[in-house]
């Protein structure tokens, strides 16, 4: 009986390895994609903060230069035409 069990184990060991490795590989790929996504989100947050700060300083500079309300309206119109800047308008 022990010999038959050992033979069956040898026959099934390839499947056992395959059924163990495939989920591990998929999990590793998922972790890599998650980390990549998190890094891209962090970079995008920094980019959006930079855009917001640039728009803020541009607006302040326009007001200081005496262009005033016209410049602010022009900047808002420009930002309103750009989908990535629309949400920065408040």
Could you walk me through the main structural features you see in this protein, from its secondary elements to its overall organization?
Keywords: Membrane, Transmembrane, Transmembrane helix. This protein is mostly helical. The protein has one domain. 89% of the residues lie in helices and 0% in strands. Helix 1 runs antiparallel to helix 2. The longest helix is centred in the middle third of the chain and has 63 residues. It starts with a helix and ends with a helix. The model has no long low-confidence stretch (mean pLDDT 81).
Structural class: mainly alpha
Shape descriptor reads rod-shaped
Summarize the helix and strand pattern as letters: HHH
Radius of gyration: 29 Å
Q: What portion of residues is helical?
A: over 70%
User: How many helix segments?
Assistant: 3
The major pleated sheet works out as: none
* Percentage beta strand: under 5%
Write down the overall mean pLDDT.
81
Total E-strand runs = 0
Question: Which stretches are low in confidence, meaning pLDDT under 50 for 5 or more residues running?
Answer: none
Separation, N- and C-terminal Cα atoms: 78 Å
Q: What count of structural domains?
A: 1
Q: Which key phrases capture this entry?
A:
mainly alpha
Nutshell version of this structure?
The protein has 90 residues and is mostly helical. Helices cover 89% and strands 0% of the residues.
């Amino acid at each position: 009986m022990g010999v038959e069990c050992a033979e069956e184990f040898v026959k099934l060991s390839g499947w056992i390895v395959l059924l163990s490795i495939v989920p591990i590989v998929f999990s590793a790929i998922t972790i890599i994609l998650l980390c990549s996504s998190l890094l891209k989100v962090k970079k995008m947050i920094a980019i959006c903060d930079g855009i917001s700060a640039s728009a803020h300083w541009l607006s302040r500079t326009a007001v200081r230069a005496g262009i005033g309300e016209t410049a602010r309206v022009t900047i808002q119109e420009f930002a309103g035409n750009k989908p990535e800047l629309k949400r920065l308008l408040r």
